[in-house]
TrEMBL record:
<dbReference type="InterPro" id="IPR009057">
    <property type="entry name" value="Homeodomain-like_sf"/>
</dbReference>
<dbReference type="InterPro" id="IPR036271">
    <property type="entry name" value="Tet_transcr_reg_TetR-rel_C_sf"/>
</dbReference>
<protein>
    <submittedName>
        <fullName>TetR/AcrR family transcriptional regulator</fullName>
    </submittedName>
</protein>
<dbReference type="InterPro" id="IPR001647">
    <property type="entry name" value="HTH_TetR"/>
</dbReference>
<keyword id="KW-0804">Transcription</keyword>
<dbReference type="Pfam" id="PF00440">
    <property type="entry name" value="TetR_N"/>
</dbReference>
<dbReference type="InterPro" id="IPR011075">
    <property type="entry name" value="TetR_C"/>
</dbReference>
<keyword id="KW-0238">DNA-binding</keyword>
<keyword id="KW-0805">Transcription regulation</keyword>
<feature type="DNA-binding region" description="H-T-H motif">
    <location>
        <begin position="28"/>
        <end position="47"/>
    </location>
</feature>
<feature type="domain" description="HTH tetR-type">
    <location>
        <begin position="5"/>
        <end position="65"/>
    </location>
</feature>
<dbReference type="Pfam" id="PF16925">
    <property type="entry name" value="TetR_C_13"/>
</dbReference>
């Protein structure tokens, strides 16, 4: 049983790595079996269909994201320090290439944004949850001088732009610029 779960985790980790570069449509049971040196029927037995593989990959990527970005920040009490750690956690997650294509969710959201279906719904739900968490974390900052929803929108935009610039243009300075933009936005908001 444990060996099967370990194999499943390995499959999903590799699937998330591939999807961060090639998208969820780039996943195939045959490719995963070949790369991980397991049988195609063994991979298929874990998921049953490409859609189930895609959904499981989204859940696995979300768990990695939560473990690396969200959980450390939630260990702090509400306030500026929690918000700063949450945002820095996201930048570090993207910058150190937890997934080769940068942020997994940034990479797959454009692929599914206009497609109906369960995979799109799952990607969208994780995006909504992240945006809500950032907004709620902003709201937890005392004496906020501006609209928390607007501040959260701007902060997420800075993070995503850093990811996009660093991946598409191979520009590591994008993270420095994003950190400066985040600092400036927080300074204005906390005033």
């Amino acid at each position: 049983m444990e060996r099967g779960e370990q194999t499943r985790r390995q499959i999903l980790r590799r699937a998330a790595e591939i999807a961060s570069v090639e998208g969820l449509e780039g996943l195939s049971i045959g490719r995963l079996a070949t790369e991980l040196e397991v049988s195609k029927s063994g991979v298929f037995a874990h998921f049953g269909s490409k859609e189930e593989l895609q959904l499981a990959t989204v859940r696995a990527a979300a768990k990695i994201f939560v473990d690396e970005v969200v959980t450390p920040a939630l260990d702090l009490p509400p306030g500026v320090a929690r918000l700063e750690l949450l945002l820095e956690g996201w930048l570090a997650y993207s910058e150190r290439r937890t997934f080769p294509g940068g942020c997994f969710f940034y990479a797959v959201q454009a692929e599914f944004d206009a497609r109906p279906g369960r995979v799109r719904d799952a990607v969208a739900e994780y995006g909504r949850s992240w945006n809500a968490l950032v907004r709620e974390t902003v709201e937890g900052v005392p004496d906020l001088a501006v609209d928390a929803g607007q501040v959260a929108f701007e902060l997420v935009a800075f993070l995503e732009m850093a990811n996009a610039q660093s991946v598409l243009h191979d520009d590591p300075a994008a993270y420095t610029r994003a950190r400066a933009a985040v600092r400036s936005c927080l300074d204005r908001a906390i005033g």
